C-alpha cells in the first residue's frame, strides 16, 4: 500500500522552486494516492522565527497548497506542531541515528554557515525530525526537490537501523518484514532543482537577499514579467538538443522551468524554441508563467483573507493525521519496551 507524505517549511517567500519541485507534484499525486501534506512549523523554528510571521507563514503555505490544487477534503493538510507524535518519534529517532550520519548532511553545513557553534541544536538534528515526519505515517513515497534527497536517504538508514535494532520485538508484535517501510524519494520532472535567476549555479531559495533571484508564488503579472526579462542568460541562441544545455546553467534552468510549467520535457520545449533568440523564448515564458502562476497567487490572497477558515482546515487535517499516526506511535512504544496505559 502506498502512502505519500511531504512538507514545506513556513519560512516565507514561497517560490517557483517550491512550486515546481514540490507543491505541483503534490497535486499530481493526490488523484490516485493517499496523501498527507504538512506545514512543518517545528522545522521552521530551527532558525529563529518572529511569532506573528510564523503564524502568517503557516497560513500562507496552507493557502498555497489549496490554491495550487490540493483538495483538503481528499488529502490531509495540517501543521506539524498539532500532531505531537512528530516530536515524540523524533526523540526516539535521535537515539537511533548516529552523529556520524548527521555530520555528513550538506544542508546543515550550508545553513549553519561559518560559525557552526552558534547554530541551534535543533538545526543539527533537523534530519531526524524529518525522518520522524515520514516514518510516523509509514509513508512509502516522498515527493521532494533534489535538495532533499540526502535527507530522505538518511530517513531510510534510520528506518533500517530501527528495524534491525528491534528485530526481535518487531517480529513479536507482528511485523516480520520490518516495522518502518523504507521511504522512496520521488524526484521527477523537468524542474527538480530550480536555480536562481541571478546566478545559474545557485539554487533558487527563500533566503536569497535579492528578490530578483526568484519568482514568488504571490508575485503579480508585472513582477513575474520583469523578473523573467531580467533573468541572467548567455548570449547564444537556444540549442535544438537537450545536450546543448550542458555548461549553460541559465539556459538549462529557464528551459526546465518552461517544460515543468507546460507539463512537457525539455526536448519538446527545444523542438519549439531551439535555434531561436533568447528574447523570443523569454516572451513565451512570461506568457506561460503568468498564465499558470497568477491565478494561484490570486487564490492564495483570497484564502488568506479568511484565516479562521484556514485554521479550521488545519485543525481538521490534524485530527485526521492523528488517527493515522497515533496507532503507529503506540506500536513504536511497544516495540521499544515503553509502558503505556
Ligand atoms: P523546504 O521548505 O526548503 O522546501 C519545500 C520543498 O520545495 C523543494 N525546493 C525546491 N525544488 C526545486 N528547486 C528549488 N530551488 C527548490 N527549493 C526548494 C524542496 O526540495 C522541498 O521539497 N526539509 C524540508 C521540509 C520537510 C520535509 C519533511 C519534506 C520537513 N519534513 C518530510 C519531505 C518529507 C524543507 O526544508 O523543504
From TrEMBL:
An example Gene Ontology biological process: tryptophanyl-tRNA aminoacylation
InterPro entries listed in its UniProt record: aa-tRNA-synth_I_CS, aa-tRNA-synth_Ic, Rossmann-like_a/b/a_fold, Trp-tRNA-ligase, Trp-tRNA-ligase_bac-type, Trp-tRNA_synthetase
UniProt keyword annotation of ATP-binding present: yes
Residue sites binding L-tryptophan per the record: 133
Motif ('HIGH' region): 10-18
Listed GO MF terms: ATP binding; tryptophan-tRNA ligase activity
Reaction(s) catalysed (UniProt annotation): tRNA(Trp) + L-tryptophan + ATP = L-tryptophyl-tRNA(Trp) + AMP + diphosphate + H(+)
Complex and partners: Homodimer.
Keywords: Aminoacyl-tRNA synthetase, ATP-binding, Cytoplasm, Ligase, Nucleotide-binding, Protein biosynthesis
Motif ('KMSKS' region): 203-207
Protein name, as recorded: Tryptophan--tRNA ligase
GO cellular component assignments: cytosol
Chain's gene name: trpS
EC number(s) reported in the record: 6.1.1.2
Localization: Cytoplasm
Annotated PANTHER family: TRYPTOPHAN--TRNA LIGASE, MITOCHONDRIAL (PTHR43766)
CDD domains given in the database record: TrpRS_core
Family: Belongs to the class-I aminoacyl-tRNA synthetase family.
Keyword RNA-binding in record: no
Residues involved in ATP binding: 9-11, 17-18, 145-147, 194, 203-207
Protein task: Catalyzes the attachment of tryptophan to tRNA(Trp).
Amino acid at each position: 500500500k502506498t502512502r505519500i507524505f511531504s512538507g514545506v517549511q513556513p519560512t516565507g517567500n514561497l517560490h517557483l522552486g517550491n512550486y515546481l519541485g514540490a507543491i505541483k507534484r503534490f497535486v499530481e499525486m493526490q488523484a490516485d494516492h493517499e496523501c498527507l501534506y504538512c506545514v512543518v512549523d517545528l522545522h521552521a523554528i530551527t532558525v529563529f522565527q518572529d511569532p506573528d510571521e510564523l503564524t502568517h507563514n503557516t497560513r500562507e503555505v496552507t493557502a498555497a497548497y489549496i490554491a495550487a490544487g490540493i483538495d483538503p477534503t481528499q488529502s490531509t493538510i495540517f501543521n506539524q506542531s498539532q500532531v505531537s507524535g512528530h516530536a515524540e518519534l523524533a526523540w526516539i529517532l535521535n537515539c537511533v541515528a548516529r552523529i556520524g550520519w548527521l555530520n555528513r548532511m550538506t544542508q546543515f553545513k550550508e545553513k549553519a554557515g561559518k560559525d557552526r557553534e552558534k547554530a541551534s541544536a535543533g538545526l543539527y538534528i533537523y534530519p531526524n525530525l524529518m525522518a520522524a515526519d515520514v516514518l510516523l505515517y509509514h509513508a512509502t513515497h516522498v515527493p521532494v526537490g533534489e535538495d532533499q534527497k540526502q535527507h530522505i536517504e538518511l530517513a531510510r538508514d534510520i528506518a533500517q537501523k530501527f528495524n534491525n535494532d528491534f528485530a526481535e520485538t518487531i517480529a513479536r508484535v507482528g511485523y516480520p518484514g520490518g516495522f518502518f517501510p523504507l521511504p522512496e524519494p520521488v524526484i521527477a520532472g523537468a524542474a527538480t532543482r530550480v536555480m536562481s535567476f541571478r546566478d545559474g549555479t545557485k539554487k533558487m531559495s527563500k533566503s536569497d537577499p535579492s528578490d530578483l533571484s526568484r519568482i514568488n508564488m504571490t508575485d503579480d503579472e508585472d513582477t513575474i514579467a520583469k523578473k523573467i526579462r531580467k533573468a541572467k542568460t548567455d548570449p547564444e541562441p537556444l540549442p535544438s538538443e537537450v545536450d546543448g544545455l550542458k555548461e549553460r546553467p541559465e539556459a538549462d534552468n529557464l528551459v526546465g522551468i518552461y517544460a515543468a510549467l507546460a507539463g512537457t520535457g525539455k526536448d519538446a520545449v527545444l523542438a519549439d524554441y531551439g535555434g531561436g533568440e533568447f528574447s523570443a523564448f523569454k516572451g513565451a515564458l512570461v506568457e506561460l508563467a503568468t498564465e499558470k502562476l497568477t491565478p494561484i497567487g490570486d487564490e492564495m490572497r483570497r484564502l488568506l483573507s479568511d484565516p479562521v477558515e484556514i485554521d479550521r482546515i488545519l485543525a481538521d487535517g490534524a485530527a485526521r493525521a492523528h488517527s493515522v499516526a497515533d496507532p503507529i506511535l503506540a506500536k513504536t512504544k511497544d516495540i521499544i519496551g515503553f509502558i503505556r496505559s
